[in-house]
Amino acid sequence: MSLLCSPSWRSIDKPLGSAVSAVFKLRNFYAASASSPSNKITLFDKIGLRAVQTLPGHEEATTYLRTIHGLGGSTQNTLLSSGKDGCVKAWDERSGMASIQMMASGRHPLLCCDASSDGFLVAAGTALLNEDAFILYWDSRNPAAPLRVHGSTHSDDITATHFGRTTNLLFSASSDGLISLSDSREVDEDEAVTHVGNWGCSVSQGGWVYDSNEPHFWTASDMETFGYWSSELDRLYDTDIRNPSLHNQGQTWVTDYLINCHCTQKLESGLAVFVGSNEGDAALIANSDLSQPAAPWTIHSIWTGGHVGIVRSILWDEHHNVLVTGGEDSKVLTWRMPELCSLNTQGEREDTMQIDSPKLKREWQDMNISEDAFVSLF
To answer: What's the whole-model pTM score?
Structure first.
């Protein structure tokens, strides 16, 4: 895996704000969940990065956060979360409590969740328990019991469930090495699964990639490999994401792990890949043509000096041109997001590159949260 430097490469060594394990975006807030010892979800003001509200979260380990528009026919954005207590919860910011609660049969620990584009169907994936792992579906308007349960799609922890933007198809990934596309409206599980891909390694993350032609899919493994898949789940590309090193203007970058991926129209491939170092730094890398194994990777920006240790979660707020990071040091940080440039048609970069070092603007840190605190940001 080769790594080239973008003509707009930036090294940013001062954060705008602080980090958590999971971060997601609501209209006026960023939401962040901690993994241990607190399972609470904290809402942060976007302007000052002040903790303005705390939601009780789950009885046991909040595992995933997701922002949903129009859940159950609502016209608002809703924060959806899953937990190892076997619940999916939709949160009401005004009351600070769950407005909708969906319980897994037998309280199977849940690792991921999502809702369909129309907001009427919710899906969640369970951890392996007693040799079974399930994809559960609920009607968000009638959440008392699962609408249906699919138990043969995967045979190990289900680590990702993602609906398509305009389709009933559900993408799922698992520690069994399989990724699947299922028709979420189909009751018969044998008929529901439309495509299956076998990566042969435990899949820790994955999702949709939207480009100008047809959707593709990305995956990340527990061994820090990255995969790219066709619309029918044929593997087009995979690589070990670690150790592509870059030395530039006194700066050195070495990738140790993949943090997350973000779909964006600002990059030719439609996918921004965020990677991290064991020292607590993060970088944005991208590939202009993931269907061509020989195509080089480009590093666009690095963010240094904010975290100590692993960066667990990252959120790119494109509307405000801000990056939000969360890490094992119990911090939530916001950073300036530089403008992106691509290589020229010959695969070459400009000779002149400037390094930005904006001052720290926003930081939040909870010294009462343990080292493995921050899991997700929305």
So the answer is: 0.86
